[in-house]
Amino acid sequence: MIEIDIEVGRRIRERRTTLGMSQTELGRLAGVKFQQIQKYETGANRVSASRLYTIAAALGVPVSHFFERVPAGDAPLPSGPGEELLQDARAVRLVRNYMRLPDDQKKVVLDMVMSMSKRIEESQEAAVET
Questions:
Q1: Angle 44-56-18 (CA atoms, 0-180°, nearest 5)?
Q2: pTM (predicted TM-score)
Q3: How far apart are CA 76 and CA 81, in angstroms?
Q4: Is residue 26 within 8 Å of residue 59, measured between CB atoms?
Q5: How confident is the model over 37-53, as pLDDT tens digits?
Q6: Helices 3-18, 89-100: crossing angle, 10 deg rounding
Q7: Which residues of 11-34 are buried (b: 16+ CB within 10 A; e: fewer)?
Q8: CA-CA distance, 78 to 89, in Å (whole number)?
Q9: C-alpha to C-alpha distance for 85 and 16, rounded to whole angstroms
Q10: For residue 51, which phi and psi values (nearest 5 degrees)?
Q11: How far apart are CA 55 and CA 39, in angstroms?
Q12: What is the per-residue pLDDT across 77-96, written as a single tens digit (0 to 9) for each?
C-alpha cells in the first residue's frame, strides 16, 4: 500500500462517518459496491481520479479535501489528537449530535464537560500530592 492511498482512504472514511453515512450508501452514490468503499478506505485499492471526483461530490467536499493533510515531497503525514478523535466512534457521535444543538444548549454542554474535566484534573493532582 502506498501512503497517499491510505491517507485518501482515511479522509474518505472521516468524511463519511462525520456525515453519518454508511459504506453502502456511499457506494450507491459513487456507483460501486460497499466492499469497494471498504477497500478505498483502507488504502487496499487506489481510487481513480474520476471515482474520487464522484465520491467527493457524494460527500459534499471538493476533491482537494482528500489531500489537505498531504505534505509536499517525502515528509511523513501529520497525525495528532484530531486523528485519534475520529477513530473513536463515541466521540464522532458526540460531535455529530453536539453540532445539531442550538447555540444556547451547546454552551451548557461545553460548560458541563469542562467542569467534569476540571474535577478529574483536580482529583488527579490531589492524588499526586498525597
A1: 80
A2: 0.58
A3: 16
A4: yes
A5: 999 999 899 999 999 99
A6: 50
A7: bbbbbbbeeeeebeebbeebebee
A8: 21
A9: 15
A10: -70, -40
A11: 14
A12: 555 555 566 666 777 778 77
